[in-house]
Amino acid sequence: MKSDIYNVNDYNWIQELLDYPESLKSDLDFFETTADITIPEDPIERVIFQDTAKNAIRKIAQNRGHILMVGRPGTGKSLLASMFNEILDKSLGDYLRPKHAIAAYPGKDKHNIRIAYEVPVMLEKCISQLFDHIRTSIENMGEFNLAEPIRSIRRVKRWLIAAAALSVAAGVFFPEAFIATGLASMGAIFMFIQENQHKAQEKIQRENIGGHHQYIKQVEDMIPEVLFDPRKETQLMARVTESDARNMKGGFRHDPYQSGKLHTPAHKRAFLGAHATSPIIYVDELKNMLKAGYMPELLEVMQSKLYKLEGGRNSGSGAADRSENDLRAENIIVACCNHDTLTSLKQDGDGAFLSRIEDKGEVIEMESAVPESPETIRQVAQYIKQEINLLAKEFDALWNDVLEKEGNEGVRKRCEQIMGRALPENYSLVPREFTQTSVMEIIKELRCRASDRKLSCILRPINGLIKSAEFIAISKNATLVEPEHVHIALAEHLSIEGAMAKELVAQKKDLKKFISTLTDAIGYVVGLAVYNSQSSGQMYGQPLPIHGQVLAGTSDKVTAPGKIGDIAMAAAQNVRASIKKVFKKIKAPYVGYEMHIEYIQAHGGVEGDSASVAMDIALISDYIKQPVNQTMAVTGSLTGDIILPVGGVTEKIRNIMDPDLGMTGVCIPWQNKHDVQPLLINVESEYIQNADVPGIRIYRNPQQDDPFDVYFCKTKFCVYQMLMGLDRETIEERMIQRSQKDLSQRN
Asked: Which of 12, 217, 22 is nearest to 682 (CA)?
């Protein structure tokens, strides 16, 4: 049958889509299971997809420049930073690592310190000698003692007391002897006073020995403080999560003994940040640095490569402390941010930070999706093998002690308690390798989360999917991870948006069944919507029932009540213009129509133009009073008569293929035909054609008794044929009849 819309190449092209699973399988022929895959020794090559970023990092590593990686979460920014650190550590680590220790000692006053760079061994030896001298001085200090003078005074006192006693006895016979008694008594009293004075002086002097200790403390406070020892700090890269002055530059700690003579000197309270101690500084989220207001200081440090250690900006202890000389800061800055932060960086200081990065480095745009090719497919298989190896290391770290003490039987019994059921005797807690077909399922997921024949680069959620499939295979004690394990993992491993979408789909099922049973299907169309997870990048499709009404003789406008976004409202206006264009083309009288569009129970609002074809079908159906097939859905952006591609088509189709929805097919834009390819993986499919519209039939179960048809439509007239069973001529004729009827009733 000759078509004015499709040509022979178009039909052949649809046939070629069916060859995709075999083509994908041939690209994976280099392994049977992931056990056959070898992991690259080059750390950077373990990061998949990001070829532009990897090439830039190699170039920057040679130049020792700065890096700013911009991209969505999960695209591998942190992993690339770690690989960059590993590459530099292996190649230039012995040259990049600091060679000198950093010491601080008192400056011109109590609020100033001086910084010195010294050879660690010499500095340690010097400080050790100083402490040895102080220790020797303390040991040689004698205890203050007045025992000998006190003994002499005590002897004289005793003689005087004895003389007084004898003179008293003699005075009985010789009264003149009482004069000697008085003199001896006064001498004894004087000696008693002298003895007590010597004892008091001895006590005072002994207590004053503490003053000597205070002098020793002052000497100890003059000893330099080692702030950084390169022999102890071996890490080449410092990861800074809270990018403020204290973490980047350092500062002075609070002194709890700041009163009296117990205060701690400034150089004993100093500490260093990443600038002084780490050749590479990794800022995981640059937005934190903008919020902390550290960006101007960072620019100054990057330019001068020097800075002074300063106290805080508050009025507490250490606020006035600072270093008299500069610290060196020859750092390589590796920073990451999202696109919203990049916008702020462009505005902050007229893009001064970006300019500084590009001066001796590069701003790297991380890919969110890459084209599917034999190389990227190989990288996916490699990535799965890497995750399996990581899981093996995690098992070894967590269960190694149990394995050593109790053996495999102990591991099995403990896993029975975790699983809540008996496990087979041959159960082993080791990761399973993926089969070739299960790897194809992961590729399918990456295709579904992107579009236009691309693989999603947001891999963090895929990690969870791989591990979930592993745990399912392990719990079933399967020898390999099979596609069914991936299917179960996919159903269980949902993001927040996925859980919400799953609940909404359940509601939409009942809603669709209710509408189908109570209406004549005139003006009702099953459109398709999609929810996008910001965290995982995954999209979740769901049916979007739409109702359209056309009322003659009222205001000539289109209305779409509810939370309708600007793009969706513009799409409604576009549909109205498209219908009016048909009236003009077929020379039908136009009496003025109010076109009403309702997104049924779309409480969360609607945005985008992917429902514009569905809106057109709903309005035309109501206008000519022709029922719409409620088991067929439609999506696409309408421009005139042409249907243009939209996003999320793969997920939209996958969602409505749920047998519980009772859908038998869908119409999608011609240019979205490649989005069907992932749905053909590990299923049976065949070519179909309805009138001149080509399509693919996908069987939803191995028995091939539950087909689902996907038709590729170029114009809205193709959709009319699929959903209402009417060709273009019939539609236009009935539109003329309706408009003439409305005109006659109006007159």
From this structure: 22
Instruction: Give the pair of three-digit tokens for residue 319.
Output: 């606020």
CA atoms of 424 and 416, how far apart (whole Å): 10
Contact status, residue 448 vs residue 495, Cβ threshold 8 Å? no
Judge whether residue 480 has pLDDT over 90: yes
Using the structure block, give the residue that is written with the tokens 């003895």: 195
Structure tokens at 210: 């503490």
The answer to whether 702 and 554 have CB atoms below 8 angstroms apart is no
Q: Do domains 50-98+233-366 and 499-746 have the same CATH topology?
A: no
C-alpha distance across the termini of the chain, in Å: 44
CATH H superfamily, domain 50-98+233-366: P-loop containing nucleotide triphosphate hydrolases (3.40.50.300)
Closest CA to 470 of 457, 460, 492, 485: 485
State the amino acid at position 270 in one-letter form: A
Confidence grade of residue 16 (pLDDT, cut at 50, 70, 90) = confident
Residues 6+ apart with CB under 8 A from 88: 61, 96, 236, 280, 332
Q: Are 721 and 626 in contact (CB under 8 A)?
A: no
Average pLDDT of the chain, as a whole number? 81
Tracing tokens 């992107």 back to the chain, one arrives at 450
Question: Where are the strands (E) in 533-682, listed by range?
Answer: 539-552, 557-559, 593-599, 632-634, 637-639, 642-644, 665-669
More confident residue, 113 or 538: 113
Domain boundaries, the chain: 50-98+233-366, 121-232, 499-746
Residue 637: exposure state from Cβ atoms within 10 A (0-12, 13-18, ≥19): buried
List residues bridging with 480 in a β-sheet: 433
Distance separating alpha carbons of residues 101 and 276, to the nearest angstrom: 10
The C-alpha atoms of residue 575 and residue 456 are separated, in whole angstroms, by 33
> Does domain 499-746 match CATH 3.30.230.10?
yes
User: What is the predicted pLDDT for the residue at 666?
Assistant: 92
Angstrom distance (rounded) from CA 562 to CA 565? 9
The pLDDT tens digits of the residues spanning 517-576 come to: 656 788 888 888 777 665 555 667 778 888 888 887 666 677 776 666 666 677 677 777
**How is residue 606 written in tokens?**
């609607």
Q: Is 370 helix (H, G, I), strand (E, B) or coil?
A: strand
pTM of the model: 0.75
Joined together, the tokens standing for residue 339 give: 């696109």
- For the segment 149-166, what is each residue's pLDDT rounded down to a tens digit? 778 888 888 888 888 778
User: In which element (H, E) is residue 310 found?
Assistant: none
The SS3 assignment for 577 reads: helix
CA gap 669, 452 in Å, rounded: 13
Task: Pick the range with the lowest mean pLDDT from 362-366, 417-421, 522-526, 566-570.
Answer: 566-570
